[in-house]
């Protein structure tokens, strides 16, 4: 995948999670640098079954919304059926209006290049819990999710996920998979 180097382990784990390939870190047997420094090898745990036809796509890289490249409309359905639980955080509109500036202040790579996206998870008071930058919005979100999974936790459901750029279909789906 086309990505900004750095936090590659988080990217791989987050992608496997958001695509429904794994539901928890224990389903990964091994995660290590691949044949070259620009690759990560993920080996699923013994006994973890995977229907590869569900995950088949035919493209190398794209800026699409996430629908493009899927082989069947059925593959757009979420692997897990998230339930938005009662008591999800209520956030003041004034805080939501301030979040982009709070995220931008922490986007050091964007400040240097003007050409990368970010995804940040905030608490309900506007504190950044974690932020990642990447050339792709999807990758930045996967890095956020992967960060929590590598700590053997799921992303907190009382958080607010903010992404730079547009929040297309696949980004919303990634947030739903994590119950954010």
Account of the protein in words:
This protein starts with 7 loop residues before the first helix and ends with a helix. By secondary structure, it is an alpha+beta fold. It has 5 helices and 5 strands. The model has no long low-confidence stretch (mean pLDDT 84).
Count of distinct strands? 5
Biggest sheet details: 3 strands, antiparallel
Look at the helices and sheets and give the structural class: alpha+beta
Strand residue content: 15-25%
The coarse silhouette is: globular
- Give the strand line-up of the largest sheet: 4-3-5
**Helical residue percent band:** 25-40%
Unreliable spans: none
Question: How confident is the prediction overall: mean pLDDT?
Answer: 84
Q: What is the rounded distance between the termini?
A: 24 Å
How many helical elements? 5
Please compute the radius of gyration using only Cα atoms.
16 Å
Order of helices and strands: HEEHHEEHEH
């Amino acid at each position: 995948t086309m990505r900004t180097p750095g936090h590659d382990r988080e990217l791989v784990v987050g992608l496997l999670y958001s695509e429904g390939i794994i539901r928890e870190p224990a389903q990964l047997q091994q995660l290590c640098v691949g044949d070259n420094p620009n690759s990560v090898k993920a080996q699923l745990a013994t006994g973890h079954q995977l229907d590869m036809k569900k995950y088949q796509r035919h493209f190398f890289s794209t800026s699409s919304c996430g629908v493009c490249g899927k082989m069947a409309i059925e593959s757009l359905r979420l692997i897990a059926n998230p339930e938005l639980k009662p008591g999800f955080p209520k956030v003041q509109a004034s805080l939501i209006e301030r979040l982009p500036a709070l995220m931008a202040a922490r986007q050091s790579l964007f400040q240097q290049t003007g050409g990368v996206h970010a995804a940040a998870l905030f608490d309900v008071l506007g504190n950044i819990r974690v932020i990642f930058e990447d050339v792709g919005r999807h990758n930045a979100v996967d890095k956020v999710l992967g960060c929590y999974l590598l700590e053997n936790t799921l992303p907190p459901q009382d958080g607010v996920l903010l992404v730079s750029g547009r929040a297309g279909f696949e980004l919303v789906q990634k947030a739903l998979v994590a119950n954010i």
